[in-house]
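User: Reviewer 2 asked us to show a designed sequence for the structure in our supplementary figure. I'm pasting the structure tokens here. Could you produce the per-position amino acids so we can include them in the response letter?
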């Protein structure tokens, strides 16, 4: 098994888990590639019997590896998606964070997870991305998002008026602090915190969720993901913010945004016994009674 390791930060409590992972990979003589900024944080803090190959972009390794291992929280996975792009490399997500809706492997399950993967005891779960087609000149390196596209006001604005159309048909003008266009994956992220519904992976939908709507009758709405979404925003300021997952840029008011489903998907490794319903029950503490 040839594996690439990707992460953003390393803290001392994480080091034993990183060492355990590296030891196992060296034991099975799998080729190991490590993302350069991540390797710089590990170098001198864990032991390598064999010097790993270093990479900075998936184009350097996509013909050499079977999986990319994202080590961190869900935010690390979002960055890993940028690294692998449309290469089709499956992601093994190891959760070193707190909540971890996307991460299918806990830090204590690293060795059993690798054993299952070596034996072929896993499935690949496809996750939809959305694509920002216009305006030109923003997010040029990677105009895609696994979780969501968000529009929100600049700090000194009172609110935005956000006009949205679906396939050319007017939907609504939202008076709000912002608006979220979420994929099913992103339905358990920012959209959920703004009372948006939880949507199962593979449901082929987008969720449109207002942020702090000034009209109390406005509610989130679910649409098919084969629609083309057009958005313009107006406000007291001459600009507002647009985010794709964790990346942010400013856009002039009145600019039209065009959003569709991306032409490729991200593949996440799912191990036996892991299911979306089980994940949300555990992460959201459904069915637990604090009195007991």
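Assistant: Here is a per-position design you can include in the supplement:
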């Amino acid at each position: 098994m040839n594996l690439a390791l990707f992460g953003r930060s390393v803290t001392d409590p994480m080091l034993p888990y990183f060492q355990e992972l590296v030891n196992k990979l060296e034991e099975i003589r799998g080729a190991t590639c490590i993302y350069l900024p991540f390797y710089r944080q590990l170098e001198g803090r864990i032991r390598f019997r064999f010097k790993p190959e270093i990479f900075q972009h998936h184009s350097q390794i996509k013909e050499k590896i079977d999986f990319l291992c994202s080590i961190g929280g869900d935010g690390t996975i979002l960055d890993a998606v940028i690294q692998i792009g449309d290469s089709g490399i499956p992601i093994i997500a190891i959760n070193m964070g707190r909540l971890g809706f996307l991460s299918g492997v806990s830090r204590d399950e690293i060795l059993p997870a690798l054993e299952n993967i070596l034996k072929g005891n896993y499935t690949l779960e496809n996750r939809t991305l959305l694509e920002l087609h216009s305006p030109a000149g923003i997010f040029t390196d990677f105009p895609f998002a696994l979780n969501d596209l968000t529009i929100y006001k600049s700090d000194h604005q009172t609110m935005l008026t956000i006009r949205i159309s679906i396939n050319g048909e007017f939907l609504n003008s939202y008076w709000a602090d912002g608006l979220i266009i979420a994929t099913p994956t992103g339905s358990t992220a920012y959209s959920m915190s703004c009372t948006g519904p939880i949507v199962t992976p593979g449901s082929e939908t987008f969720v449109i969720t207002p942020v702090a709507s000034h009209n109390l009758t406005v509610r989130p709405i679910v649409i098919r993901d084969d629609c083309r979404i057009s958005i313009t925003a107006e406000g007291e300021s001459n600009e507002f913010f647009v985010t794709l997952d964790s990346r942010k840029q400013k856009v002039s008011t009145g600019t039209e945004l065009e959003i569709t489903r991306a032409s490729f998907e991200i593949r996440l490794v799912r191990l036996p016994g892991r299911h979306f319903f089980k994940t949300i029950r555990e992460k959201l503490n459904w069915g637990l009674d604090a009195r007991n």
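For the response letter, you might also mention the following. The chain has two domains: 3-122+271-283, 130-263. Residues 3-122+271-283 form a domain with the Rossmann fold fold (CATH 3.40.50.10330).
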